[in-house]
Amino acid sequence: MLSLSLWGTTFSGFAALASVEETNLKESILFAFDRDPSVSQQAAQMGIGQAMTDEAKSGWMPQIGLTGSTGHSQTTDSSGSLKNSASWGLTLTQLVYDFGKTNNTIAQSEAQQESYRYELMATLSDVAAKAALGYVEVKRYSKLADAARENIAALENIQQLATLRANAGLSSTSDTLQTQTRIAGMRASLEQYEAALQKAKAVLAVQTGVSAKNYAELPEALEVNQTSVEDIDYSRIPSVLAARSMETSAEFAIKKAKAQHLPTVSLKAGRTRYESDNRAYWDDQIQLSLDAPLYQGGAVSARVRQAEGAKAMAASQVDQARYDVLQEASAAMADWTGARGREDAGKFQLMNAVQTRTVYKNEYTLSKKTINDLLSVEQDVWQATSAKINAEYDGWSAAISYATAIDNLLPLIGIEKHAAEKLPELN
Fold first, then answer.
1. Distances in Å between the alpha carbon of 372 and those of 363, 381, 384?
2. Where in or outside the cell is it found (predicted)?
């Protein structure tokens, strides 16, 4: 059972790898959410943001304190001297009005907390993208390894044919030797793909904590609904929203800094018990206090300038976030378009190579083609097959990168951002 907490208190963390018979992309991503430390770190950051907001709101709550002291204390006035040995009591301070200092602090913290929420959403999308890209590599090398095995089987079929012809005296034994050499080369390629497949599985297992025997096909929804980069809705992309929230937080920080020029009105009350050398008495007070700064050496003005500088930086970060999204989406769209074009070309090339192979095989049987012709066309079939597979999975990778850039990856895979106990509440 996956469990993510909004405040980062129930993340499961690392555990031993689990073995399953089969998994799919959606399950892999959900497991990655539960395992990736960046998710729990960002959720903990949201908890910090909530605590900052609660601290800011406490400014409107009454502040109650307990005082106490002991030791020599002497008060001298026109009526004589009074020596105190101990005192204790209660104090209460209630903010009445501070010209927006506290309210702007609260608003600043709330905007910052909102930014942390969007950063968590962006983190979930990034983790999903890493797991999805890792899943694509597993499928890529699995298909390439299968294709290499098919090519070896085809070459072995040619070897059998060459052996039969050599035994019948229709060709030399060099045909068989040439075919064996080509088979050995393909087996070496198969070993490389098998090694790459094991590496891809190991990387994905670290990301998800799950090792599977079989990996389901990628969902077709990933390669549809590709929107033009001119129509990107930046108002729903977490990285942009996070930057805008920080800009809003900076605006409230400016207002808070400017309010430092204005006074603060508070109600103060207290009741203190004094123990003197000849008697004990109570000192009661209730006062309306006004704290108005007159001169602070330019500190407040400096704070205002700092806050204005922070806002300018936050505004540029919004532009930077939009720029990054556009750049990533444009590059991914170009990669996706190119991959689909290469895949179509690979299909056409493969179809021609397969047809040519059939013809050449018949003609080799009739001694109209040499073994080199047959092996050459078999190489064409392999090159077309591998090119088609690589183009297909390059397209999947580009589609994932594009969907991640525009914050559409999770919905395409079928993961709701309100996935009950499996995801934090994000809206």
1. 12, 14, 18
2. Cell outer membrane
Give per-residue pLDDT as tens, 289-321: 898 888 888 888 998 999 999 999 999 999 999
* Helix or strand (DSSP H, E) at 13: none
The neighbour count for residue 154, using CB atoms within 10 Å, is: 17
User: Shortest CA distance to 396 belongs to which of 146, 143, 202, 197?
Assistant: 143
Integer CA distances (angstroms), 168 to 329, 362, 364, in order: 62, 17, 14
CA distances to 94, 283, 307, 387 from 273, rounded to whole Å, are: 22, 6, 45, 90
* Cβ burial, residue 174 (10 Å; 0-12/13-18/19+): exposed
Q: What is the CATH number of the domain that holds 270?
A: 1.20.1600.10
Q: In angstroms, what CA-CA distances link 292 with 61, 201, 269, 298? A: 21, 67, 19, 15
- For the chain, residues with pLDDT lower than 50 are 1-13, 418-427
The answer to the question of residue 205 being in a domain is: yes
Number of domains in the chain: 1
Range of the domain at 106: 18-422
- CA-closest candidate to residue 113, choices 194, 185, 31, 57: 57
Name residue 305's amino acid.
Answer: R
Q: Which two tokens stand for residue 238?
A: 């977490």
pTM (2 d.p.): 0.83
